[in-house]
Design a protein that fits this description.
The protein has 189 residues and is an alpha/beta fold. The protein has seven helices and eleven strands. The protein is globular, with a radius of gyration of 15 Å. The termini are far apart.
């Protein structure tokens, strides 16, 4: 089974401290925009939301909510670690990450990233730029990721460099992919 974790557990620094999942685009919360996109997937995925605040509000969406396993802020890798741990308990072999501030992708992102198999790790590339928060990771990478975080490392790029598995870059054109990184950008979309 493939899992898809929506990464909504950040501090929201670029959004003035707001929980990005509840910022709005065209009157709709970001989290709902992403859930709508995920529904268009060509493959079945088990969706969970990685969040560290407003947990009851997220739970009302009817999707399992997981929180970081560590105290303090370790960034998206901590959300991935929680997803991999959840995967061990729920028989989910591979996880695809989807940042909550990436409101739309003009491709079947879960289908694209779900093609990866075994212990390979994939990172999405659009227009020759690696999108490090868009990953496909085997649950077998939990120990490696936890060890990396145990040394107070937080960089996705740094963890991927340490990995001995193949990192595959997807260079298919994505003309409509975007991430919202400020309240001004959110208001202007």
């Amino acid at each position: 089974m493939i899992g898809l974790v929506i990464l909504a557990g950040g501090e929201g620094k670029r959004m003035g401290g707001q929980d990005k999942g509840w910022c709005r685009y065209n009157g709709k919360p970001f989290i709902e925009c992403v859930l709508d996109e995920v529904e268009r997937s060509s493959i079945p995925v088990k969706v969970v939301i990685s969040a560290n605040r407003n947990l009851e509000q997220y739970r009302k969406l009817g999707v399992p909510v997981i929180s970081d396993l560590r105290e303090g802020y370790y960034g998206p890798l901590a959300g991935l670690e929680a997803a991999l741990s959840f995967g061990v308990e729920h028989n989910i072999e591979r996880w695809i990450t989807w940042p909550v501030d990436c409101l739309a992708l003009d491709c079947d992102y879960p289908g694209l990233m779900g093609e990866i198999s075994g212990d390979q790790t994939a990172v999405l590339s659009k227009q020759e730029k690696l999108e490090f928060a868009h990953l496909s990771v085997s649950v077998n990478k939990l120990d490696s990721l936890s060890e990396y975080l145990n040394h107070s490392n937080r960089s996705i790029r740094g963890w991927l460099k340490e990995e001995k598995s193949l990192i595959r870059e997807w260079n298919k054109p994505l003309t409509h992919a975007f991430n919202v990184n400020s309240t001004q950008q959110s208001l202007s979309l």
